[in-house]
Amino acid sequence: MEAVPARVRAYVTCVALAVLLCVLHLPGVHTPWRAVTPWWAVTPWWVVTLLAALYAACEHVVRRRLGGTFYPVLLAGAFLLPPPAAALVPLPGALLSRAEQRPQALRRTWRAAELALAVWGAGRVHWALGGRDAVVDSDFPYALLPCGAAVLAFCAVLALLDGGILAVAERVPVRRAWRGLLSRSLAPVGVHGLAGLMMAVLWRSPYGPVAALLVLLPMCVSWWVFAQYHRERAAHQATIRALVQAVDIKDGYTRGHSERVGQASVMIARELGLDDDRVEVLRFAGILHDVGKLGVPTRLLRKNGPLTPEERRIIELHPEYGHEMVRGISFLGEARAAILHHHERIDGSGYPYGLVGTQIPESARVVAVADAFDAMTSTRSYSRARPVAVAVAELRRCAGRHFDTGVVDALARALARYGWHPAVTADDRPSDQSDSSDASGPSVPGPSVPGPPGGDRESVGRGAP
């Protein structure tokens, strides 16, 4: 069993004790009418049992088979039951679920405790705002107010506890531990809260629990579709990572270049106002633009001396090699055109087909600028890195002849607004790049590069193609 710091065990124990106090607090949570009857005497235990079994089944199917978390049953319990009883609903499913990492018992206890405390908090807020009466009377739209407040409380408790475990277990600074946890969970949990409210209203209606359970069917179908989308997206990312890693291994001098070109392509695309789908495609295009180097002999990619005309022609085949490699990958869309044409130039001096102006696909014009920018601002075996401001000035000088003027302007605006914060270069030293605001960089700027800038060693420092 892996060693767990004592502070983590103490934190989990405190949360578990808090749940125990909430459930066993004898004065209890009275009914909304302030009756003196303790909560366990007015709790329909068959409802608790059914909801607990239902959540355990959902935990098994959704969490283990589809991935993610499924909250409608828990929130329905918060809307139907006294808060201490609602806190019991997640316990069997969480305690019996499989933990992916050790120590499993501690992880199960933690998950059960945080969910129970979150459900209890949601139930307290819901009952305090008269939500139970609104559910029983199907009082819409008033029922939405306590429901929304309960969802907010549920998310707040989870965010508070998750931030705490990050700060305690992983030593994340307190100012960062809770950052974004609440805001990221509100929208998805809000949808689950509406489903839980529908379950609770139908449960209290003449149609009964069977109708309430039917609410879960479309939720499970939509969750399955959502999970399939994310699995497909993960497969896409794995495919791209494998291709990029292969290129990085073969051409070690440009390791990290692909990711940085993808980053710059995204900055340009967003500045141009492209929709999110096209921004994602351009990110793929930037990352994979040099995948054709896998078809180029390694000795040419790593050659330090000048290239012969024949060697240069061989290297200039890499866009066509890359296009053939990704031809069958349907999700890349217009990224395939960018891979094929990212060395074309506006004046027709590029390759492989010598396209002119708008004959060059927009995606290729974006990647061409991103590629040239990173080539100039990165230290290579054959050139020193330039400051960001110098690189932008060089791109502007070549705009209209080799690069699309609008794309160059978009990159300059994005750099002025956000700066340039790329990944670490191949030699594990911080990249000699900086924000355009101060144009800082290496203490001595690199030597002037004759001809227009380009992204590959066959064009950088060797003149225009």
From TrEMBL:
It is an enzyme of class 3 (hydrolase). SMART domains: HDc. It holds the Pfam family HD_5. Residues 254-376 form the HD domain. Residues 424-465 are annotated as: Disordered. One of its GO terms (molecular function) is hydrolase activity. This is HD-GYP domain-containing protein.
